[in-house]
Design brief:
Length: 533
């Protein structure tokens, strides 16, 4: 018996040493590659000039990996009315129509935007090194991919610099409809009596049907208030693309019909040219209400954010996270929560990952297995009975530091996801904060997203390899986290706000912010809203 114990002990020690060595080797290997790539910089790849066969192979690789590896991929179709799996033929037609590498890059970006997943995208080439997710380190230090990525980055810059489209007209989604945006459009201002106000139809189809039938650079989102999918923008141009007949309501109440074009390249140009920078973190305090806008949860914002949260004067707090793209989950726990609450609690979520070729890079990694405690299970919301799938539990600890809980409202939208979604989800579930706005982008209940590259182009894309459910049983990636109260920017306030320079005077902008004003009124008349919900 003593001999067996010694044998088991030696085996355990040996196994532990193998694990430690494997972890150390992976970390050291990537560090060494990083040093080599820094000392001996990688040259940009020459023109790839992808052949149609290579483009199709890359699309097929992307399509197969996301369809097979994302457990919630088919759940979107019921809510959005769009099945990514069933639109493969349409996507292949688009890929076959591309005539250059840049067109292929734009087309793949649009195809990825047809998946209403917060983390699923063909990433901008310049952001590769900023990725912190599964497999990102391996891709970031691969010399062949670095060379190709430099090529795509320069191609994207030159493509944007061409400014092919001299004019385009932009309609923005506002409270259930698509409203003309003169500030974002690029065209001569029309006479007031003929100026477009609202988009009514495209080729006889409603805008709601049009955005589902046609792919776009602008991602599909879900409007929980109006219970329908939407895209932030619909952009038309006067130059080229697919010809459409556009019906618009004008300022004088008439209906105008105009021949226009839709083009993915124009949409990409619009993004490069016309998308205003998001205003930086901002604090506004008035009438016993502290308002703070928080745009990210990245490590470099931690100390500054901590100081700003400490400086808030009032117990009535509005946190605006509409433009928060996420970051580090622990940052919110350490730098936001302690300045708002006295309570201590732990949140848990279980996520599930299918067994696939691309996901294999996640669960076969020893470091990932240990950190996330990834294990095999035969029961999950995403598998048939007896079908094996990997799962893990993601836990977060919150500890308050003040002696009482503040009255907290968080403004949400489909913009915040990932770490931002996790934070607002936890506070909502503990009934510590009131969420106002729209459903979040979700995907904060899993551990991380996945990065992969296409075999020929080297284009890097990301996707969510695991699924998790909200407490009410809905999928967090599909539905996000729902607010307690659905409130949208009104059309009148949208028009007023569009004439205000948000960067010059954010306080003035808030006067025309329907959602902010709703939150202020809620804090004044909380009992009324609770009793009449």
């Amino acid at each position: 018996m003593h001999f067996k114990k010694e044998v088991y002990k030696k085996i355990s020690i040996t196994a532990l040493l193998i694990v430690v060595f494997g972890m150390s080797f992976t970390i050291i290997r990537n560090d060494i590659l990083h040093i080599i790539n820094t000392v001996v910089p990688v040259r940009e790849s020459k023109d790839l000039l992808l052949q149609q066969k290579e483009k199709i192979e890359d699309f097929e690789y992307f399509f197969d990996s996301v369809v097979n590896s994302m457990p919630m991929i088919d759940d979107y179709s019921e809510l959005y009315g769009v099945s990514f799996r069933e639109r493969k033929g349409k996507y292949l037609e688009i890929i076959n129509s591309t005539k250059s590498d840049y067109e292929f890059y734009v087309a793949m970006s649009a195809i990825a935007s047809d998946i209403p997943s917060f983390h699923t995208d063909v990433i901008e080439p310049s952001t590769v090194n900023a990725l912190h997710c599964y497999n990102s380190k391996n891709l970031a230090e691969n010399r062949e991919l670095i060379a190709k990525n430099k090529y795509w980055e320069s191609l994207a810059i030159s493509g944007a610099a061409q400014k092919t489209f001299k004019k385009y007209r932009v309609f923005e989604y506002v409270d259930g409809d698509y409203i003309y945006s003169p500030s974002k459009s690029k065209e001569e201002v029309e006479e007031n009596d003929n100026q477009a106000v609202e988009l009514k139809s495209i080729n006889g189809s409603s805008p709601d049907e049009f955005i589902k039938e046609n792919i776009s650079i602008f991602k599909l989102h879900y409007d929980g208030k109006h219970k329908k999918p939407f895209r932030y923008y619909i952009v038309f141009n006067c130059d080229n693309g697919n010809e459409v007949s556009v019906e618009m309501r004008t300022k004088d109440g008439d209906v105008a019909i105009q021949k226009s074009y839709v083009n993915l390249l124009c949409e990409m140009q619009f993004i490069d040219e016309s998308m205003a920078d998001v205003v930086e973190e901002f604090i506004h305090e008035q009438d016993s209400v502290s308002y703070i806008k928080i745009n990210s949860l990245t490590a470099n914002t931690g100390k500054e954010l901590n100081n700003k949260m400490k400086s808030l004067k009032y117990d009535n707090v509005i946190i605006d996270m509409r433009d928060n793209y996420g970051g580090n989950k622990e940052l919110a726990e350490k730098n936001i929560y302690p300045m708002l609450y006295s309570e201590k609690f732990k949140s848990k979520s279980v996520w599930y990952m299918p067994i696939t070729t691309t996901n294999k890079k996640v669960y076969d990694n020893i470091l990932n297995r240990i950190i996330s405690n990834i294990r095999i299970t035969e029961k999950s919301p995403y598998s048939e009975i007896g079908e094996k799938i990997y799962s893990a539990t993601d836990e977060h600890q919150y500890e308050g530091r003040i002696d009482h809980n503040k009255n907290v409202i968080i403004i949400t939208s489909c913009g915040p996801g990932s770490a931002a979604d996790r934070f607002v989800s936890d506070l909502k579930n503990e009934e510590l904060a009131v969420l106002v706005g729209n459903n979040t982008g979700g995907e904060g209940l899993g551990f991380s997203f996945m990065a992969e590259s296409m075999p020929n182009s080297g284009l890097i894309y990301i996707y969510m390899p695991c699924g998790a459910q909200n407490p009410d049983g809905t999928d967090n990636s599909v539905y996000g986290t729902a607010p307690n109260y659905y409130v949208s920017q009104s059309k009148d306030d949208y028009i007023k706000a569009s004439n205000t320079d948000i960067h010059d005077d954010y306080s003035a902008f808030l006067k025309n912010d329907t959602i902010y004003q709703w939150c202020v009124d809620y804090l004044k008349h909380k009992t009324y809203y609770v009793n009449n919900k």
